[in-house]
């Protein structure tokens, strides 16, 4: 099946008991058993739920895998993947990454003497230089959050596998529609399904997809043991959102291109970050490993923090809020919102300044988005 067909049908056969076309919401915590071990595949909904199974199978199919797990949030999915590490292990990560991920690395993993080395996202050779004898995992975001740099997945996968290290790729910004990291050599793909996969800003969730069954089984054990799973209604909402993923992503990209071009010519904008622009330093890499450039645009505003505060108060169509990937346009100030957990000196050294704004371009009429940007920036 092609992508759009899988988004609608993978893991979602008509319900055998009723013929219902849409996957039912199995709103139950437990299941009747007929004698010792006499269950029908489900015992307790933390361990497994039919609605969640449909979601896990669908997301796995979109990443061209058989092994998917769903979680209560993107960070719950991250923590489950990180359960593969033990005290004394080391990992290598790109330096431009979501603030919540940095917080886990520096304030949770560090308690267990698990150290993280950070590498400039696009500096391929530096990942290998950062590897130590105890390095067990390489963690990538591509495009990165919020500066939208690209990491060469194929090249890093070759480095990781030569050193017998697992490669994890956070694919949230691209979605499986525009990028499929397992096909490029990654071992694990991570999603905050809150974002593009659900796409309607009405549910929080996460997912992990695996190339190898043994790694999948290890994380599945943690999923059940730690219990950070989505409920059946959250799973159902996410499944419903997935069905329109392809058409939404096409419109997100079309609008984002329009917005990026507009901002790149605006006198009050200093710099635009969008991999679809020929001026982007990773434009050629984006063309080679992505099927499109996504719906995220970041830009540096010419002015002060006080000017930024005035601008975000003026928006009428665009909403000033955290998160991304919904059908509506959202703009955020990473330094004080999504990346506020990263110390200021580290943020600024990585290029994340107080005048950076991150725009998740929605699927509204592009003219209305541009008009709103113009009046707010004026």
From TrEMBL:
Required co-factors: pyridoxal 5'-phosphate
CDD domains: CGS_like (cd00614)
GO cellular component assignments: cytoplasm
Gene3D superfamilies: Aspartate Aminotransferase, domain 1, Type I PLP-dependent aspartate aminotransferase-like (Major domain)
GO biological process, one term: transsulfuration
Keyword Cytoplasm applies: no
In-chain residues carrying the UniProt-annotated modification N6-(pyridoxal phosphate)lysine: 195
Gene Ontology molecular functions: cystathionine gamma-lyase activity; cystathionine gamma-synthase activity; pyridoxal phosphate binding
Family to which this protein belongs: Belongs to the trans-sulfuration enzymes family.
NCBIfam families the record matches: PRK07811.1
Name of the protein: Cystathionine gamma-synthase
Organism, as annotated: Dictyobacter kobayashii
């Amino acid at each position: 099946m092609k992508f759009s067909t899988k988004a609608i049908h993978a893991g979602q056969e008509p319900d055998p008991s009723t013929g219902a076309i849409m996957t039912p919401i199995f709103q139950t915590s437990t299941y009747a058993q007929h004698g010792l071990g006499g269950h029908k595949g489900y015992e307790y909904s933390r361990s497994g739920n039919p609605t969640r199974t449909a979601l896990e199978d669908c997301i796995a199919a979109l990443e061209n895998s058989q092994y998917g797990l769903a979680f209560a949030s993107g960070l719950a999915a991250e923590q489950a993947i990180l359960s593969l590490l033990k005290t004394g292990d080391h990992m290598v990560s790109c330096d431009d990454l979501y603030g919540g991920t940095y917080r886990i690395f520096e304030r949770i993993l560090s308690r267990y003497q698990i150290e993280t080395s950070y590498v400039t996202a696009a500096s391929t050779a530096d990942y290998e230089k950062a590897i130590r004898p105890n390095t067990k995992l390489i963690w990538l975001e591509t495009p990165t959050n919020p500066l939208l740099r690209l990491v060469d997945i194929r090249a890093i996968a070759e480095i990781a596998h030569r050193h017998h290290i697992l490669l994890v790729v956070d694919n949230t910004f691209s979605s499986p529609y525009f990028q499929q990291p397992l096909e490029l050599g990654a071992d694990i793909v991570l999603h905050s399904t809150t974002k593009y996969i659900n796409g309607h800003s009405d549910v929080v969730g996460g997912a992990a997809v695996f190339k190898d069954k043994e790694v999948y089984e290890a994380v599945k054990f943690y999923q059940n043991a730690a219990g950070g799973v989505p409920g059946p209604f959250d799973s159902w909402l996410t499944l419903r959102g997935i069905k329109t993923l392809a058409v939404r992503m096409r419109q997100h990209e079309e609008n984002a291109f329009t917005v990026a071009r507009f901002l790149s010519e605006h006198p009050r904008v200093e710099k635009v970050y969008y991999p679809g622009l020929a001026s982007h330093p990773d434009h050629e890499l984006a063309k080679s490993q992505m099927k499109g450039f996504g719906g995220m645009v970041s830009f540096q505003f010419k002015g002060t923090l006080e000017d930024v505060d005035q601008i975000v108060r003026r928006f009428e169509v665009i909403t000033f809020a955290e998160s991304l990937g919904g059908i509506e346009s959202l703009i955020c100030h990473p330094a004080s919102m999504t990346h506020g957990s990263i110390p200021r000196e580290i943020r600024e050294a990585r290029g994340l300044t107080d005048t950076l704004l991150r725009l998740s371009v929605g699927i509204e009429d592009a003219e209305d988005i541009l008009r709103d940007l113009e009046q707010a920036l004026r």
